[in-house]
């Protein structure tokens, strides 16, 4: 959350008398517009003047009409557009001192001393050079008579804040750069499409993805689609890889798969530093194995299209943080980058990030590939380690004689199958026997239990819903049968994947341990529900997919009003009593209000919202969007709100309503949900393996300590396991939500971006963090 440094400062006066310019530079990336929109609107909210710089640094040098005042309305309807609306250009002029002199003169004349740059590492380095030269540039301009001493005095130093916009995710210190998630969406759409045709013809497909010298896109794609092999620049394959690759492809086919997928990063190299290309691989597979092979180079498709929900929220949050960082900066503050770590906004010294990014290149050039992977950050390393674990095809010779059962509980959601696949495969690699339980706890009671193998889960990563079958039934009434079946099938551990029923069902199982000794086995719960309402985790599997469904539906609904008279849409979202989907969709679709149970509202609030919309409709803005969580109020129903807005808006706007319903639970999982689920499934079984060793006594497993039944979740910056007993205290069972929810802090951002004059949270302050000493210690579960 963006924060105000000094308590007592009115955030709406912070920027009075200041001017901010925003520009996008370098390669475009989806989500840049969200960042521009947030920078403009929050800048105006603080009372600052805001300027667009069109065509990147070229516009800064050329000045004139390229630098224009930005208004509230000028960024309306920008959120869902890909690319950058204000244009970007590669600029040679700015690399010369002469060019930078012109740029400085243009800014001084407009009184701009705050520059927000959205771009890659090159663009941000350029901004830093500009800042360090600033006082010298002003001296030159005075001596040449281009500016007066008074003008120079009022613009004595330049503040710079960067946001990293790049699909490559190659900037060290940031978990996710703006555009990366959207690029993954494009890639996974293609992989899913190619998979169906490849299976029809039993083909091998080689896909080249972008990323320059960074293998992030290739690596996450390989994880998210279960590719047979991935080539990334950070970790070239060992010599003799050709034989190994052919062996792996053959083994996959022998195991019954009808296709092979190989992912290649565009910068992929071998140990000698020579490029590994699509064509080279195609020749190898065709000549050695005789497989029908096709190569596809994705190219600029990856940069295009509408930004994903994640990139819109990321861009919006970064825009808010950037304005705050600019307005709080002093001449002593180093130029900084605003970024997300886990789900926390952080500020990092720009040049430290650039230095670590350069160190990666140096390490790769010197053949220190392990160092290169480490320098990329913990999230990259986690991805690489998970990929390596899952890439094994041969199970170990020695079995552990451990039986692990996996079940899905509650409503189905996208990503459940990816978690099951990872858990099954990691279990097999650990030497365990894996058992599938169909239809949740009921299936555990009714003996719907069977072995599940490596090949059965092969194609599951991209499948929506639950292949195992899932039910909301709780185990309470079946304890007797469940404990008998645990004994009968000799089950030593349970992986329970699901929503609130998984959590409360597991609690019932733990309470039953006193009566039934068979229940004294380790259990791990993996949160998977569109509602994102489980304690112990900031995110649950399936929520990202639902959020993207809601966002793209809102886009279409808003578009349906294009060209008609003024119209307001009221849209009802799922989530039970949890307002996560309504709030995050409000941020990513640009809603005027989102009504949720956690933030009480009454008739006065509704009245204010209607008046606010009426005022907004008097400007050039012609559309309004209101989101309502399904259980936000038993009396202020969707129909009530629709009727109220219809009546009060008479003559100004008309209303339409939509209840989105079960489409929010369906669909194929997003890249985030596939990757998140894969890591969660893998981590859960690795934890169980360790826990089983601890609980092994006198030839049998006995687990009855609180920490033998845990929820695996993502908290702030890492994956953590928390005992159910502890989480019980943090839960509101009546409304099935955690008592504290991190995302409530984002609600003020949504309101400010919708032009409400409310105050920002001043309690938590985002301080500058260092990258150099942090990059080796953090445990970040990467997003996605």
UniProtKB/TrEMBL annotation:
<feature type="binding site">
    <location>
        <position position="656"/>
    </location>
    <ligand>
        <name>beta-D-fructose 2,6-bisphosphate</name>
    </ligand>
</feature>
<comment type="subunit">
    <text>Homo- and heterotetramers.</text>
</comment>
<keyword id="KW-0808">Transferase</keyword>
<keyword id="KW-0479">Metal-binding</keyword>
<keyword id="KW-0460">Magnesium</keyword>
<feature type="region of interest" description="N-terminal catalytic PFK domain 1">
    <location>
        <begin position="1"/>
        <end position="392"/>
    </location>
</feature>
<comment type="similarity">
    <text>Belongs to the phosphofructokinase type A (PFKA) family. ATP-dependent PFK group I subfamily. Eukaryotic two domain clade "E" sub-subfamily.</text>
</comment>
<feature type="binding site">
    <location>
        <position position="203"/>
    </location>
    <ligand>
        <name>substrate</name>
    </ligand>
</feature>
<feature type="binding site" description="in other chain">
    <location>
        <begin position="166"/>
        <end position="168"/>
    </location>
    <ligand>
        <name>substrate</name>
    </ligand>
</feature>
<keyword id="KW-0325">Glycoprotein</keyword>
<comment type="function">
    <text>Catalyzes the phosphorylation of D-fructose 6-phosphate to fructose 1,6-bisphosphate by ATP, the first committing step of glycolysis.</text>
</comment>
<keyword id="KW-0379">Hydroxylation</keyword>
<feature type="active site" description="Proton acceptor">
    <location>
        <position position="168"/>
    </location>
</feature>
<feature type="binding site" description="in other chain">
    <location>
        <begin position="574"/>
        <end position="576"/>
    </location>
    <ligand>
        <name>beta-D-fructose 2,6-bisphosphate</name>
    </ligand>
</feature>
<feature type="domain" description="Phosphofructokinase">
    <location>
        <begin position="403"/>
        <end position="687"/>
    </location>
</feature>
<feature type="region of interest" description="C-terminal regulatory PFK domain 2">
    <location>
        <begin position="403"/>
        <end position="784"/>
    </location>
</feature>
<dbReference type="InterPro" id="IPR035966">
    <property type="entry name" value="PKF_sf"/>
</dbReference>
<keyword id="KW-0597">Phosphoprotein</keyword>
<dbReference type="GO" id="GO:0016020">
    <property type="term" value="C:membrane"/>
</dbReference>
<dbReference type="GO" id="GO:0005524">
    <property type="term" value="F:ATP binding"/>
</dbReference>
<keyword id="KW-0547">Nucleotide-binding</keyword>
<feature type="binding site" description="in other chain">
    <location>
        <position position="472"/>
    </location>
    <ligand>
        <name>beta-D-fructose 2,6-bisphosphate</name>
    </ligand>
</feature>
<feature type="binding site" description="in other chain">
    <location>
        <position position="266"/>
    </location>
    <ligand>
        <name>substrate</name>
    </ligand>
</feature>
<keyword id="KW-0324">Glycolysis</keyword>
<dbReference type="InterPro" id="IPR009161">
    <property type="entry name" value="6-Pfructokinase_euk"/>
</dbReference>
<feature type="binding site" description="in other chain">
    <location>
        <begin position="210"/>
        <end position="212"/>
    </location>
    <ligand>
        <name>substrate</name>
    </ligand>
</feature>
<feature type="binding site" description="in other chain">
    <location>
        <begin position="662"/>
        <end position="665"/>
    </location>
    <ligand>
        <name>beta-D-fructose 2,6-bisphosphate</name>
    </ligand>
</feature>
<dbReference type="GO" id="GO:0016208">
    <property type="term" value="F:AMP binding"/>
</dbReference>
<dbReference type="InterPro" id="IPR000023">
    <property type="entry name" value="Phosphofructokinase_dom"/>
</dbReference>
<dbReference type="GO" id="GO:0061621">
    <property type="term" value="P:canonical glycolysis"/>
</dbReference>
<feature type="domain" description="Phosphofructokinase">
    <location>
        <begin position="20"/>
        <end position="325"/>
    </location>
</feature>
<feature type="binding site">
    <location>
        <position position="27"/>
    </location>
    <ligand>
        <name>ATP</name>
    </ligand>
</feature>
<protein>
    <recommendedName>
        <fullName>ATP-dependent 6-phosphofructokinase</fullName>
        <ecNumber>2.7.1.11</ecNumber>
    </recommendedName>
</protein>
<dbReference type="Pfam" id="PF00365">
    <property type="entry name" value="PFK"/>
</dbReference>
<feature type="binding site" description="in other chain">
    <location>
        <position position="736"/>
    </location>
    <ligand>
        <name>beta-D-fructose 2,6-bisphosphate</name>
    </ligand>
</feature>
<dbReference type="InterPro" id="IPR041914">
    <property type="entry name" value="PFK_vert-type"/>
</dbReference>
<comment type="pathway">
    <text>Carbohydrate degradation; glycolysis; D-glyceraldehyde 3-phosphate and glycerone phosphate from D-glucose: step 3/4.</text>
</comment>
<feature type="binding site" description="in other chain">
    <location>
        <position position="630"/>
    </location>
    <ligand>
        <name>beta-D-fructose 2,6-bisphosphate</name>
    </ligand>
</feature>
<feature type="binding site">
    <location>
        <position position="294"/>
    </location>
    <ligand>
        <name>substrate</name>
    </ligand>
</feature>
<dbReference type="GO" id="GO:0006002">
    <property type="term" value="P:fructose 6-phosphate metabolic process"/>
</dbReference>
<keyword id="KW-0963">Cytoplasm</keyword>
<dbReference type="GO" id="GO:0048029">
    <property type="term" value="F:monosaccharide binding"/>
</dbReference>
């Amino acid at each position: 959350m963006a924060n105000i440094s000094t308590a007592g400062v009115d955030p709406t006066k912070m920027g009075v008398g200041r001017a901010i310019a925003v520009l996008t530079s370098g390669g475009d990336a989806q989500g840049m517009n969200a960042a521009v929109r947030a920078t403009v609107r929050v800048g105006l909210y603080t009372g600052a003047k805001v300027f667009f710089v069109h065509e990147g640094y070229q516009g800064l040098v050329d000045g004139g009409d390229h630098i224009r005042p930005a208004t509230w309305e000028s960024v309306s309807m920008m959120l869902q557009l890909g690319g950058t609306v204000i244009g970007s250009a590669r600029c040679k002029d700015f690399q010369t001192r002469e060019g930078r002199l012109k740029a400085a003169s243009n800014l001084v004349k407009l009184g701009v001393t705050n520059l927000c740059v959205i771009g890659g590492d090159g663009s941000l380095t350029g901004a830093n050079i500009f800042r360090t030269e600033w006082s010298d540039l002003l001296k030159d301009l005075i001596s040449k008579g281009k500016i007066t001493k008074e003008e120079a005095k009022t613009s004595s130093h330049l503040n710079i804040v960067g946001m990293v916009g790049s699909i490559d995710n190659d900037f060290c210190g940031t978990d996710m750069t703006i555009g990366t998630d959207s690029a993954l969406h494009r890639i996974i759409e293609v992989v899913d499409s190619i998979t169906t045709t490849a299976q029809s013809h039993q083909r091998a497909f080689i896909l080249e993805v972008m990323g320059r010298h960074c293998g992030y896109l290739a690596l996450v794609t390989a994880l998210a689609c279960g590719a047979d092999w991935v080539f990334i620049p950070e970790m070239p394959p060992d010599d003799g890889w050709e034989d190994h690759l052919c062996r792996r492809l053959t083994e996959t086919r022998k195991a019954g798969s009808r296709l092979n997928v190989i992912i290649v990063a565009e910068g992929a190299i071998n140990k000698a530093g020579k490029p590994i290309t699509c064509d080279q691989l195609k020749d190898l597979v065709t000549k050695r194995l005789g497989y029908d092979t096709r190569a596809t180079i994705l190219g600029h498709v990856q940069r295009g299209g509408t930004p994903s929900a994640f990139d819109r929220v990321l861009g919006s949050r970064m825009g808010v943080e950037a304005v705050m960082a600019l307005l709080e900066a002093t001449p002593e503050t180093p130029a900084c980058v605003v970024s997300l770590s886990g789900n926390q906004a952080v500020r990092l010294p720009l040049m430290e990030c650039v230095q670590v990014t350069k160190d990666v290149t140096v390490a790769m050039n010197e053949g220190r590939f392990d160092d290169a992977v480490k320098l990329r950050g913990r999230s990259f390393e986690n991805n690489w380690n998970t990929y390596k674990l899952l890439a094994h095809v041969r199970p170990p010779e020695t079995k552990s004689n451990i039986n692990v059962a996996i079940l899905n509980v509650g409503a189905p959601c996208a990503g459940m199958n990816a978690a099951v696949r990872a858990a099954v495969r990691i279990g097999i690699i650990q030497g365990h026997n894996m058992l599938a339980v169909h239809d949740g706890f009921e299936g555990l009671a009714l003996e719907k239990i069977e072995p599940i193998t490596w090949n059965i889960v092969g194609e599951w990563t991209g499948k929506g819903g639950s292949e195992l079958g899932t039910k909301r039934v709780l185990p309470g009434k079946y304890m007797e049968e469940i404990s008998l079946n645990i004994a009968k099938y000799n089950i030593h551990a349970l992986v329970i994947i699901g929503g609130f029923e998984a959590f409360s069902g597991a609690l019932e199982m733990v309470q039953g341990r006193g009566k039934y000794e068979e229940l004294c086995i380790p259990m791990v719960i993996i949160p998977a529900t569109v509602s994102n309402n489980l304690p112990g985790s900031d995110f649950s599997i399936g929520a990202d997919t639902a959020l993207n469904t809601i966002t793209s539906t809102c886009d279409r609904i808003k578009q349906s009003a294009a060209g008609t008279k003024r119209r307001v849409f009221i849209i009802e979202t799922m989530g039970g009593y949890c307002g996560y989907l309504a709030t995050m969709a409000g941020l990513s679709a640009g809603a005027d209000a989102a009504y949720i149970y956690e933030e009480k509202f009454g008739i006065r609030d509704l009245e204010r919202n209607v008046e606010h919309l009426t005022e907004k409709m008097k400007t050039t803005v012609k559309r309004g969007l209101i989101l309502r969580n399904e259980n936000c109020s038993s009396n202020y129903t969707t129909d009530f709100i629709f009727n109220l807005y219809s009546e009060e808006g008479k003559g100004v706007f008309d209303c339409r309503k939509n209840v989105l319903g079960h489409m929010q639970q369906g669909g194929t999982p997003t890249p985030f949900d596939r990757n998140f689920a894969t890591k969660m499934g893998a981590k859960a079984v690795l934890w169980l393996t360790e826990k089983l060793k601890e609980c092994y006594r006198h030839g049998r497993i006995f687990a009855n300590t609180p920490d033998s039944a845990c929820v695996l979740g993502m908290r702030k910056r890492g994956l953590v396991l928390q005992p159910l007993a502890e989480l019980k205290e943090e839960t509101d069972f009546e409304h099935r939500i955690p008592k504290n929810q991190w995302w409530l802090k984002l609600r003020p951002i949504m309101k400010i971006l919708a032009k409400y004059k409310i105050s920002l949270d001043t309690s938590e302050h985002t301080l500058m963090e260092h990258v150099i000493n942090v990059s080796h210690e953090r445990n970040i579960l990467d997003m996605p």
